[in-house]
Automatic annotation (TrEMBL):
It comes from Madurella mycetomatis. This is FAD-containing monooxygenase EthA. Keywords: FAD, Flavoprotein, Monooxygenase, Oxidoreductase. SUPFAM superfamilies: FAD/NAD(P)-binding domain (SSF51905). It holds the Pfam family FMO-like. GO terms for molecular function: flavin adenine dinucleotide binding; N,N-dimethylaniline monooxygenase activity; NADP binding. The lineage of its organism: Eukaryota, Fungi, Dikarya, Ascomycota, Pezizomycotina. It comes from the Eukaryota. Its cofactor is FAD. InterPro entries: FAD-binding_MO, FAD/NAD-bd_sf, Flavin_mOase-like.
Length: 423
């Protein structure tokens, strides 16, 4: 078995992992590192998901970071206090289908693999779905050969995936109905930034991108802070904006007035208001009801209404990939309590996810730089038992989304105070 010695290993070649690698190249150019990726493509979520309308929430411009790639699935990782290193075992797939075992000896271990299982969607019970004679599709496993033109489509759920799918499908489908059990907040965001054209006249592309990035981050930060600080105002503001864009006579209170405040669950954004524009078409609609049963030709609702369909799309979220680490606290959103020389990359939940991942990467690099400056060989976060007994216990992600709530017990914990917090 081959052994490779490196400074750092990053698990996951999605945007978070690639960005972490970029930060390492830029801020720690003398560190050696590699990225382990279990799939045969890079880009993570934005490479894997193929459904119509898919779009990234990232406002970052990525540099060329990955020079070569092979499918490498991590199988185990163990820390040696004597060696002050991690031993990581992985299966490396080569051309021709052969799989080789490989060992990595690394000083620092970073996890940027996200929180979804690629091979498994979040389980949802749809009564007797097997009775349906049409096609049942999950966006997570969308195939480019799926033909939805001219079909009657029902999208089950109302999250970001459904809000993205509806306008894309409505272009060629006979009809598209979004069936939701409860309402959601949807907010229209500008699709293009006019500053790009203006700034490019006065400065280089590099500087224009930097200015625009900071402008986007500042606007988003202020927007999120205001909505979180004034929830009643936020509800009224979002409801007013939705009424402006929805068709006249649309029952906004029934379909887009949820029980929760903005950011208690994910706030769905639709660039350029494409979701609201699509609802002006007579072939699209929103139904707020629960499923009684599935028939051969559609869905029977509790209210007695029937939705005829040729295709049902179950737009549920991915299944959580977290293991049982629910007893550990998170230090500054990056390090699990008691785990040495290791960090994980996650994004924001009350704002765009990916810029938050960049903040976490920078935080980890600060820790690594401090270790190198002081000559220390290891770092870990710890809470004194007396302090731990006084700390509040909250899940690291506090959104009320079903797939997150179901994983609360498996999530690491935060206290919401001091360094023991995520945001």
């Amino acid at each position: 078995m081959a052994t490779e010695t490196l400074d750092i290993v990053i698990v996951g070649a999605g945007l978070s992992g690639i960005n972490t690698a970029y930060r390492l190249q830029k801020d720690l150019p003398h560190c050696t590192f590699t990225i382990l990726e279990a799939r045969d493509g890079i880009g993570g979520t934005w490479d894997f998901w193929k459904y119509p309308g898919i779009r990234s929430d990232s406002s970052m411009s990525m540099a060329s970071t990955i020079r070569s790639a092979s499918v490498t699935r991590l199988t185990s990782a163990s820390w040696s206090s004597d060696e002050q290193r991690w031993t990581i075992l992985a299966d490396v797939s080569r051309d021709g289908g052969t799989v080789e075992k490989k060992e990595f000896k690394v000083w620092w271990f970073t996890i940027a693999s996200g929180h979804y299982r690629y091979e498994q969607a979040f389980p949802v019970v749809i009564p007797v779905i097997e009775r349906f004679a049409g096609q049942v599709v999950h966006p997570q496993f969308w195939d480019k050969n799926i033909d939805y033109a001219g079909k009657q489509i029902v999208i089950i759920r109302s999250g970001t995936t459904a809000v993205t799918l509806l306008p894309a499908l409505a272009e060629t489908a006979r009809s598209v109905t979004m069936l939701q059990r409860s309402p959601s907040h949807v907010f229209s965001a500008p699709q293009k930034n006019r500053m790009v054209r203006v700034l490019s006249r006065f400065m280089s592309t590099r500087w224009a991108r930097a200015v625009i990035w900071w402008q986007r981050m500042l606007v988003e930060a202020v927007f999120v802070k205001v909505l979180l600080a004034f929830p009643h105002f936020s509800r009224r503001f979002i409801m007013t904006e939705m009424r402006k864009q929805l068709p006249e006579g649309f029952d906004v209170d029934k379909h887009f007035n949820p029980r929760y405040n903005p950011f208690e669950q994910l706030l769905c954004f639709c660039p350029g208001g494409d979701f609201f524009k699509a609802l002006h078409k007579p072939s699209t609609g929103v139904v707020t009801d629960t499923i009684e049963t599935v028939t051969e030709t559609g869905i029977l609702l509790k209210s007695g209404e029937t939705l005829e369909a040729d295709m049902i799309i179950a737009a549920t979220d991915g299944e959580s990939a977290s293991d049982a680490i629910g007893q550990k606290y998170v230090w500054n959103g990056t390090m699990l309590g008691g785990v040495p020389n290791s960090g994980f990359i996650s994004g924001y939940t009350a704002a765009t996810w990916t810029p938050g991942a960049d903040v976490r990467a920078r935080q980890l690099i600060k820790v690594i730089k401090h270790l190198k400056k002081t000559g220390a060989t290891a770092a870990a976060s710890f809470i004194k038992p007396s302090e731990r007994a006084r700390l509040p216990v909250k899940p690291a992600l506090t959104l009320g989304s079903t797939y997150i709530v179901s994983a609360y017990e498996r999530m690491p914990k935060v206290a919401g105070v001091g360094p023991w917090r995520m945001e």
